[in-house]
Design brief:
Number of helices: 1
Shape: elongated
Radius of gyration: 14 Å
Length: 46
């Protein structure tokens, strides 16, 4: 995770890196462009 634009740009050039952009919507952090059905299943362990 980074806010450094130069670092992000350099990492995006590497085929070994996968870029995910985060957004905050209604107080919840989500992955930009990911729909509800694309989300991995998640539950808090008991």
């Amino acid at each position: 995770m980074s806010h450094a634009s130069r670092l992000i740009a350099t990492l995006k050039e590497s085929p070994d890196c996968n870029t995910l952009e985060l957004d905050k919507q209604l107080g919840q952090t989500c992955i930009r462009g990911q729909g509800m059905l694309d989300e991995p299943p998640w539950h808090w362990p008991d």
